[in-house]
Amino acid sequence: MKSKPLLVGMNNPQGNVPLFPHPPGCTGWRIWQMIKGQTGARRGEYMNTFDRVNLLDSPVWNARAARANREAILRQMEGRTAVLLGRAVPACLGLPATLAGVWYVTPNPDDQTKDTRWCFLPHPSGLNRWYNDPENLKMASELLSDLFTAYRHGLALSSETRRVA
Length: 165
Hints:
Shape: globular
Number of domains: 1
Radius of gyration: 15 Å
CATH class: Alpha Beta
Structural class: alpha/beta
Largest sheet: 4 strands, parallel
Number of strands: 4
Low-confidence stretches: none
Distance between the termini: 27 Å
Mean pLDDT: 85
CATH architecture: 3-Layer(aba) Sandwich
Number of helices: 6
């Protein structure tokens, strides 16, 4: 894996760096904790391993403004593995709703997204009850940890498609 995996969120109500792992309980912190639990990753390692972007820089969510950023975000994802967090992200990017829940999708050369590997996870904001199921939390943690480990050690990811329950 050459390029850093990309985490794509909605917006940051706290207005700081996208998916930053502080303060405790925020989305970036929850993602880091999932990886840390599997790999022992330190905060700096999480930050250096993943590129992180939100659809909006604004602390207030606005779907119309997020959709206006579609082309810029899709360009950032070209040829990479992108983890899209929550249903609003793929919806604003114009991706089919049927892809929701897919972990890895084999790159398709005919696709407009230019060999992007998509990973979709429910939003880990702390409000999503999907993560209350230990099996779901384990699956999400394994996905994020696989991406972390593959990038850190220069390993290739499998091209299998796995679905989240």
